[in-house]
Design a protein that fits this description.
CATH superfamily of the largest domain: DHBP synthase
Helix content: 25-40%
Strand content: 15-25%
Bound molecules: adenosine monophosphate, magnesium ion
Distance between the termini: 50 Å
CATH topology of the largest domain: DHBP synthase
Shape: globular
Oligomer: single chain
Radius of gyration: 20 Å
């Protein structure tokens, strides 16, 4: 067993304009400079940051998360020009995407120039980079003076953290510090787009939708493995079970009556049931011992924002055997929400005939 370490906890207001002078930010940045790892908020989820040029820092990230080392990390920089320090070239498509969506929840894949730790890229010739749209994240990165590799700040496999309390739950005693800047806005990770080829390709759906991307660059492809589970994904991280609560989760595609049937059947089998429903359906079903509400139907942004918190709540309190969740429409952010739901459910989906 690795020894526990003292985890600093800093609370910062994200609406002040002198964040770069805030002692909390400077302390966090100082630790990053010394290759320690520190969690901080971004607009997507909380990230666990480490100096992307330091093998030691990157090893600390993988150890704290228990993350498989063949799953590369996304590098976060505070301004667009910094990308040029780490990549061979940018393409016209990538330039247009950076103009349109940075800072923001879009990670672009470039050929790297070997100046980052090999552990960041898991030995690939490419690297994913983004500029986050969060004042606290930007201040921490800028004050550190380093490119910051930052995967989600959760134990590998668990739902990603959308509050500092989620980070504490998973990583307290294992990392040097946590910057608390409140709840994250988007609630899902960034969209990962490979723009090294002619047609840009979505490797992971996320905070920027396919429709938004297509408005800027025309046709955008989607990694076929995201539709067909048999193919090996091009984004290594997508092959792992992820975001999953402890109880076995199943997605249900169909009417409310069909959803109720699934609950009844499980109860008959002697299982304790949890359900994940939008606010409007809080009281609609019977038989579940736990109902966790996640967003409002028809407001996919609210579902995205609340999803990980709701999945985490199933893991606290009285334990349950199975969880049922209704599928959501796959338009706009629905694509990313369904991707995370499928992963949390290990691809178990029941479809009404
Ligand atoms: P996370 O750090 O948990 O947000 O996950 C990062 C995601 O970005 C994973 O799915 C990685 O596989 C993906 N990723 C990072 N770098 C690359 C790369 N060079 N090529 C393809 N996918 C990448
Ligand atoms: Mg993650």
């Amino acid at each position: 067993m690795k020894e526990q370490q003292m985890t600093n906890f800093w609370s910062v207001e994200n609406n002040v304009d002198n964040l770069l002078e805030s002692p909390e930010i400077l302390e966090a940045a100082q630790l990053l400079k010394h290759n320690e790892v520190v969690a901080f908020p971004t607009e997507t989820v909380y990230g666990l940051g480490g100096n992307a040029q330091s093998d030691i820092a990157i090893e600390r990230i993988f150890n704290a998360k228990g993350r498989p080392s063949d799953n590369p990390l996304i590098v976060h920089v505070s301004k667009r020009e910094d990308v040029l320090d780490y990549v061979n070239q940018t393409t016209e498509v990538s330039e247009r995407l950076m103009d349109a969506f940075w800072p923001g929840p879009l990670t672009l894949i470039f050929e790297h120039n070997e100046t980052l730790s090999k552990k960041v890229t898991a030995g690939l010739s490419t690297v994913g980079i983004r500029v986050p749209d969060d004042p606290v994240a930007l201040a921490v990165i800028e004050a550190s003076g380093c490119p910051i590799a930052a995967p989600s700040a959760n134990t590998s496999g668990r739902p990603s953290p959308t509050t500092a309390a989620h980070v504490e739950e998973d990583l307290s005693g294992k990392i040097a510090g946590i910057v608390d800047g409140g709840s994250t806005g988007v609630g899902l990770e960034s969209t990962v787009v490979d723009c090294t080829g002619v047609v840009p390709m979505i490797l992971r759906p996320g905070g920027i939708t396919k429709e938004q991307l297509e408005e800027v660059v025309g046709e955008v492809a989607v990694d076929p493995s995201l539709m067909e589970e048999k193919e090996a994904p091009r984004s290594p991280g997508m092959k792992y079970t992820h975001y999953a609560p402890k109880a076995e989760m199943t997605l249900v595609h169909g009417s409310d009556a069909f959803f109720q049937q699934q609950i009844d059947q499980a109860v008959e089998e002697g299982l304790t049931v949890g359900i994940l429903v939008p606010k409007e359906k809080d009281e609609r079903f019977t038989g579940a011992v736990r109902t966790e509400v996640c967003g409002e139907a028809g407001q996919i942004e609210s579902v995205a924002r609340e999803l990980y918190g709701a999945l985490r709540r199933f893991d606290s309190g009285e334990s349950i055997d199975v969880i049922f969740a209704q599928t959501v429409g796959e338009a706009s952010l629905g694509q990313a929400v369904m991707n995370r739901l499928r992963k949390a459910a290990g691809n178990r989906v029941i479809v009404e005939e």
